[in-house]
Specification:
It contains 6 helices and 19 strands. It has 347 residues and is α+β, with helices and mostly antiparallel strands. It folds into 2 domains: 114 residues, Sandwich (Jelly Rolls); 201 residues, SGNH hydrolase (Rossmann fold, 3-Layer(aba) Sandwich). The strands form 4 sheets. Strands 1, 3, 4, 6, 9 and 11 form a 6-stranded antiparallel sheet that branches. Strands 2, 5, 7, 8, 10 and 12 form a 6-stranded antiparallel sheet that branches. Strands 14-13-17-18-19 form a 5-stranded parallel sheet, with helices on both faces. The two termini are 33 Å apart.
Length: 347
Amino acid sequence: MKNSLFAVGEPIKLAGNEMIRIRGRHTELDSMLAFDWTNSGFAFNFTGTGFIISLGAYSADAPAYVKIIIDGKDSRRVAVVNGSEKLIVEGLSNKRHRVEVLKVTEGEPKLCFDTVTLLGPGASLRKPPLNSPRKIEFIGDSITCGYGVLGLPTDPTYLTYQQDGTNGYAYMTADRLGADARYIAISGKGIVCNCNGDREDVKAGEYCSYISRTGGECNDGWTADVVVINIGTNDCGGPAPDDEFASAAKALIAKVRARYPEAQIVWMYGMMSQLYKDVLRKTVREIAKTDPKVHFLFVDTVFGNESETGANGHPNVRASVRASGLLYKKIRSVTGWRGAAVIPDEE
């Protein structure tokens, strides 16, 4: 094979490496980069013909999936079962390449990345990709995680191969705007109760500030220009009373506002439930009287439309495209952003 493994460099540690650009919230575990949020990961530029990424040990009931994106267009999805796997890309043209490595499924077991080994004669890391001047944070549940987005309407349960956060509405919107994004979302959660009606379970108002899904305050200085909240679907599991739901919605918006004083805040709702549509519209309208940077976006449901339904009643890719189009227009209208941000390939 042309440009194959005829020249192999030394393993390069990823954690603490200034040549590696982090995507999303992360921690470190045993001197490795550790990720548990959907669509979190890292990016790097290199010159060479390929690379090998080594992982840390991984244990979960189902595989995690990693998406590797080469030069913004060529992508491949890899299953990780126990962490002994190697993520190998080879046979590239011997020139500069931009690489993004994203964990596209959710789950509390952290996926750890240890080293990258570059392939090709004279292969080397280049200066890292630049961050976008635009930053969006998504706070959500399974819809934002891309749960079931690759599944069929006849699939009654969730399997990790059906999930891919990069095929969800949130990633599509950020990508179209050329924005860096964080996806702070956990399936089944709400603001009053979870999908089973459990009020003791962790809620969006708690985990929205977590550094990882299991806790710890995120204080890394990252600041959002836009925050999209897509929460409220699972509160139907109670169901939460309207007044209690409205109170929790106000508290979540207040918490987001305290964290990001200048951000535009868009509460998006409706893709899987319309129970709290009027409550949310009224609540947001009241807040907007004194905070005009708070907005409501209603997105019509996928229910009754098999062409938009994936696994376990969740939106599929087609529904994600529709919702993304509406959200894209809304964000443009409240920010004045036009087209995608132009981001140089490296510093």
